Amino acid sequence: MAVITLVDDDENIVESVKLALESHGHTVRAYHDGAAGLAGLESDPPDLAILDVKMPRMDGMEVLRKLRQTSSLPVIMLTSKDEEIDEILGFNLGADDYMTKPFSQRLLIERIKAILRRAGVDAGDADTSDAAGKSLKRGKLAMDPARHESTWDGKPVRLTVTEFLLLQALAQRPGFVKSRDNLMDAAYDDQVYVDDRTIDSHIKRMRKKFRAVDPEFDAIETLYGVGYRYRE
Q1: How do beta strands 27-31 and 48-52 pair?
Q2: What is the dihedral of CA 226, 204, 5, 106, to 10 degrees?
């Protein structure tokens, strides 16, 4: 199955989540502070990481920020606070999903399954559709789903799993508007609910990445109150 790194300073949560994940066949590497977790993530990358927000030595947001400088591996954030600012910040830093403590272990496992499926891990039929597995080129944009690689005018742009799926959904049909609901369906499992600001945060971060290699990037167009579309 998948290798999952769990970083949380609450030993009870670590043990209970570790047992639940191992019962589903996953291998779990556990760390109890952010600095140790980041070192483990960098030295031996897993298939997915689960990061608590509040931790000693280095908090989860800082771990995510540093991780995103070199890696696009899927990340789920955990927090004990039910505050919008944490969620928005987490998505802006590149989190793939977000859960508030206390949480249902069943729901966490469902969300892990959904993200792994989207990432092509532990899912033999993940790329069975032509649209999912076929390379795509739209103007300066090139995407290779099999390698999870995207480039703009020949320059690599590192995208998270969620960002990649959102961009792929938009670029498959240039000029056609995709509502936020359409994009949620493309990037998230139907058992996982996310709200509009989650999609907006992913799009905002994606634009920032492309503008880092091309300040004139404007291929993702916002139609206020409607959704987004890709234009060549």
Answers
A1: unpaired
A2: -20
Cβ atoms 157, 213 nearer than 8 A: yes
Each residue's pLDDT tens digit, 107-164: 888 889 888 887 766 444 434 344 456 788 998 999 998 788 899 999 999 888 888 8
Q: Choose among 122, 120, 115, 102: nearest CA to 17.
A: 102
Per-residue confidence (pLDDT) for residue 41, from 0 to 100: 95
Return d(Cα 114, Cα 124) in angstroms, integer: 13
Q: How far apart are CA 95 and CA 72, in angstroms?
A: 10
Token pair, residue 134, equals 């076929």
pLDDT at 88 > cutoff 70 = no
Q: Which amino acid does the sequence have at 39?
A: A
Is residue 171 within 8 Å of residue 136, measured between CB atoms?
yes
The whole-angstrom separation of Cα 136 and Cα 116 is 22
Contact call for residues 164 and 203 (beta carbons, < 8 A): no
Enter the tokens of residue 170: 């938009």
User: If you count them, how many residues does the chain have?
Assistant: 232
227 with 180: CB under 8 angstroms? yes
Joined together, the tokens standing for residue 58 give 């280095």
CB 5 within 8 A of CB 40: yes
Three-state SS at 94? coil
Q: For residue range 171-216, list pLDDT tens digits in order.
A: 988 888 888 888 887 777 555 556 667 788 889 889 999 999 999 9
